[in-house]
Structure formats: structure tokens, C-alpha cells
Amino acid sequence: MLHRLGREALTLATRTFKVYLTLLKIMVPALVVIKALDMAGATAWLAWLLSPLMQLMGLPDSLGVVWATVMLTNIYTAMVVFFQVAGNEPLTTAQLTVLGTLMLLAHFLPVEGAVAKKAGVPWRLTLALRIGGALVLGMGLNAFYSATGFLQEPGKVLWPFRTDPDSSLATWVLEQLSTLVLILPTIFCLLVLLRLLALLGIEKLIHWLLYPLLRLMGIGREAANVTIVGVTLGLTYGAGVLLEEARSGRLSKRDILLTLCFLGLCHSAIEDTLLVLLVGADLSGILWARLAFAVLVISLLARLPLGVLKPLPTVPDSPQS
Fold first, then answer.
1. Which residues make beta-bridge pairs with 92?
2. Is residue 1 part of a domain?
3. CB 222 within 8 A of CB 255
4. What are the beta bridge partners of residue 154?
5. DSSP code, position 309
6. Domain that holds residue 209
7. Does residue 235 lie within any of the structural domains?
8. Do 67 and 50 contact (CB within 8 A), yes or no?
9. Which of 167, 91, 40 is nearest to 82 (CA)?
10. What angle do CA 148, 149, 152 make, to 5 degrees?
11. How many domains does the chain have?
12. DSSP one-letter code for 222
């Protein structure tokens, strides 16, 4: 018994470090590039480009810098920027919901796009799905809320973030190191949980429950576990586990592609959704409409001719030692 437990622990530890090293090779360079671009003024330039698009979604031009920030960095940073540039601007709950939806669909693109690219999803598809999808859903929600008069009351911010963040380079480095260190135990816990689900037979139950939804999107039931990880905890963790599953041959390349495309539109449904609720957004847009939109888009993508998806890059083999 002890021998078997030791062998399981060693296997899990080995898998954890493989996934962790793969993610580090992607995330560290991407984080450095993001910081350099931000210091060079890329965020302000992108905000200027986005201003006309904000009007199409019923949002003031000033919120362009918020979406520009979240696309290059993360939701936490964008929320700080939001309270700096629009904290006192009168916005309706509908407008806050549209903004929250934009933030959830298209954020942290340099890092999450790099992770998806490593697993076989090209940049052009990631950007088209996430930025294009955010625009389509944002305009759709704005049209719906305007036509029905739903959520037109003044928005109520539940918890304002501090608006005087320490922006020094040293603070940024410490924050990134802290995040990168925490990823390691998180991955280990995820892999332990997945192993327990398999041993207890819960994995099969999850597959059965998710199969109708996965089948609608053209995804095999073997991707159920990875989908759950990504939807609940985030694209980075989901893709990290997915890379390991792909190298083992348990998932087809088509399942990998469709799963990652789905996670690109709907991931971290707990933490990120709760964060965006704090700025006064409504669940009708940031959760239910986002989930329905993701299912619809991936269902349509899955029905494209196989030749359309065949040219995509393949999942790389694990590095040789």
C-alpha cells in the first residue's frame, strides 16, 4: 500500500514539474514583453484605437483604456484603471455589464494566447475568437439591454479597488514572482484532484453529465476533466493539464483545439466572474450570456469542414532531456 502511494506521489510530482516548466517557458517571456510594451505606451495607443469601438457598444470613450489594459494585462489591473478613469462617471448597470463582458472575454491575451499557441491554437484564431467575440457579444448585449430597458438603472459598485497602486518595477517583479510560485502547488493539487476523481469513479459521472454539452460543441467526452479545470480555474491551468493529456495521446488534436477555443471564451467562471461583479456588472451578461455565446460559437466552429481545422499546428512532443 505504502509502495503504491509512493509511486503515485512520484508520478504526480513528475507530471506537476513537467506542466509547470512548460508554463514557465511560455509565461515568463510573455510577462516581460507585456511590461515592456506597457512602459513604452502601448496601452495608451491601444486605448486610442479602441475608442470608436466603445461607442458601438454604448460605452464612453474613456473606457477604451480599461479594455486596452485588460487585453494586455489582467482583470485586477484593469479594475484599478477603471476606478482611476471612470470611478465617478455615471454608468448604468447595463453599461457595466457590457464592460465586464469585454473584460472577461478578452484579457491577458499575450500570456493566455501564448499558452494556447503552445497547445496548437494559432494566434490568429485566438485573437479572432476573443477580441471579435467580445465585440459581437458586447454589441449584442448593448442592443438587447437598450431595446428592453433592462438594467438601465444607475450602476452600483460593490467594492472599489484602491486607485493609487504602487507601479514601481520592483513591486511588479515581486508580484509576478509570487504568482509564478503559487502556480506550482496549484498544479499539483489539480493533478491530485483529477487522479482522485478517476480512482473514485467520479470522473465517469462527470463525463456522463457533461457529455450532452460537449457533444453539442463537437468535443469528445475525454476532454471533460480538462474543460472543468479550465472553466472553474482558468485557461492557463486548463491548458497546462491539457498539454500533458495531449502528449499522452488521450485527446485528439480536434478535441484540443475545440476545448481551448471554448476555454478562451469561457474560463475561470468563479474567480473572474466574482471580480467583475464587484464593479456592478450583472450575471445575465457576464456569466449566462457568456456561457451561451461560447457554446454557440464552438458548436458552429465544430461544424466547419475538417479541412478548415486541419492546417492548425500540432501539439508539440514533450521536450527531450
1. 154
2. no
3. yes
4. 92
5. H
6. 8-158+180-309
7. yes
8. yes
9. 91
10. 145
11. 1
12. G
Q: How far is the CA of 129 from the CAs of 24, 95, 122, 165, 304, in angstroms?
A: 25, 22, 11, 32, 15
Written as one letter, the residue type at 97 is T
Left, alpha or beta for 41 (phi > 0: left; psi -120 to 50: alpha)? Answer: left
Measure the CA–CA gap between 21 and 27, rounded to whole angstroms: 10
CA separation for the pair 121, 115 (Å, rounded): 9
- C-alpha cell of residue 198: 478517476
* Grid cell locating 200: 473514485
Containing 274, the helix (H) or strand (E) segment is: helix 271-277
Reference 77, options 90, 88, 65; nearest CA is 65
Q: What is the pLDDT along the chain (321 residues), one digit of tens a residue?
A: 777 778 888 888 888 888 788 778 777 887 787 778 778 887 778 888 888 899 999 999 888 888 988 898 888 778 877 877 776 678 999 999 999 999 999 998 988 888 888 877 899 999 999 999 999 999 999 999 999 999 999 988 876 655 455 567 888 788 778 878 877 887 788 778 777 877 887 767 766 777 788 888 888 877 877 787 778 767 766 667 777 766 767 778 888 889 889 999 998 887 788 889 888 999 999 999 999 999 999 999 988 865 555 544 444 443 332
The three cell numbers of residue 114 are: 501564448
Helices (H) and strands (E) in the chain, counts: 17, 0
Place of cell 484540443: 256
